[in-house]
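To whoever is on call:

I kicked off a structure prediction for a single chain this morning and the downstream step that reads the tokens threw a length-mismatch warning. I double-checked the sequence; it's 162 residues and nothing unusual in it as far as I can see. Pasting both halves so you can look.
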Amino acid sequence: MTARAYFVLAAVLFLGAVSDARAFAQQKVVSWIAEVYAAQASRIASARSLDERGVRALFTPEVVELWRAAHRDREATAPEEQGFDALFGWQVPLGTEVSFTAVSQVLGTAEAPTLLIDVIVSGKPRRIVLDAVDTAGSWRIANIVYDEGEDFVSFENKHARP
């Protein structure tokens, strides 16, 4: 077989692999967020908080490092953080009745969408704006803007220790 024939064969195999990879498409971001918020609502109802493992699984590496710096040498029950939930926002102490109601993509690109998330906290509706990014084939949260108080990145950045 000639060098050209090997090149053609390699190209055909590569294109076949690419089309096979597309057959296993990544989960849609709105489905992923719905699962994330439903799971967090269940954790809050069970009086369990999002731990470091959960933060690593949900947020971008840059946000995870910021979160770690903010929690270094600091008690998890610092007064400002009491009642703060990374996904639902302010005034959401563990055990609060929360639920996820809807999510829609409103801005951004396929790789970096901005989503509107509707939740209910203690019987009152709230709207959250979330920026997600596709990192190496999986979704991660880049920031969350709550209906009141600081956004997630600003809050953690304020408390980050070098």
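Update from on-call: the warning came from a stale cache, not from the record. Cleared it. Sanity check on the structure: The domain at 27-159 is CATH 3.10.450.50 (Nuclear Transport Factor 2; Chain: A,).
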